[in-house]
Design brief:
Number of domains: 2
Bound molecules: zinc ion
Oligomer: single chain
Radius of gyration: 20 Å
CATH topology of the largest domain: Dna Topoisomerase Vi A Subunit, Chain: A, domain 2
Strand order of the largest sheet: 4-3-5-6-7
Number of helices: 8
Order of helices and strands: HHHEEHEHEHEHEHE
Structural class: alpha/beta
Helix content: 40-55%
CATH architecture of the largest domain: 3-Layer(aba) Sandwich
């Protein structure tokens, strides 16, 4: 038997399905949200929906943006000859935070994972190859996480790009293998970029 009405249970379930939110946190959030004045609760719901509806993938790098081309791709001061390949939009934020990288990005939206039945066709690879085939790119930096799926994805892409005249490098991680890019501190990410090695 449940302690709460179904509508509260549903809210707790939905919140608990978010990354990093356990049942206890979900309950705390749910009760907080329900204690807000109706107008504030509406504002949160509206903000979420507006963001969701206006967000799309950048035509060039596939990062999430609310315009056709994202601000990084639009920025004339960024070096378009260097593409840093990451698995998720949050990894772009992690690298940008380190303020060291001046090139552009390509967001794959996932990594190859036989366990989760995610294959190369599920990633934004066609768009990446298209960018390389257009020419003008001198280096592709593979910045997928240093875990087995990230390594598999990085080496798959380096093979995929081998017919093209482009240098493919891999971040030299100072972070433990199996760790995640988003949790690396700025100094570690800067060292990882500086120490990148060619495939
Ligand atoms: Zn972009």
């Amino acid at each position: 038997m449940s302690f709460f009405p179904a509508s509260i249970e549903n809210l707790v379930d939905k919140l608990a399905s978010l990354p990093g939110i356990g049942t206890k946190s979900a309950q705390r959030l749910a009760f907080h949200l329900l204690s807000l004045p109706e107008g504030e609760a509406e504002a949160i719901a509206e903000t979420l929906l507006t963001a969701r509806r206006s967000i799309r993938r950048c035509r060039v790098c596939q990062n999430l943006t609310d315009s056709e081309v994202c601000p990084i791709c639009e920025n004339g001061r960024r070096d378009r000859g260097t593409i840093c390949v990451v698995s998720e939009p949050k990894d772009v934020l992690a690298i940008e935070r380190a303020r060291e990288y001046t090139g552009v990005y390509h967001v794959l939206h996932g990594v190859i994972s036989p366990m989760k039945r995610i294959g190369p066709d599920d990633l934004a690879l066609r768009e990446l190859v298209g960018r390389i085939a257009e020419g003008g790119v001198g280096e592709v930096i593979m910045a997928t996480n240093p875990d087995p799926e990230g390594e598999t994805t990085a080496s798959y892409i380096s093979r995929l790009l081998s017919p093209y005249e482009v240098k493919v490098t891999r971040l030299a991680y100072g972070v433990p293998v199996g760790s995640s890019l988003e949790f690396a501190d700025d100094a570690t990410l800067t060292r990882a970029l500086e120490g990148r090695q060619e495939y």
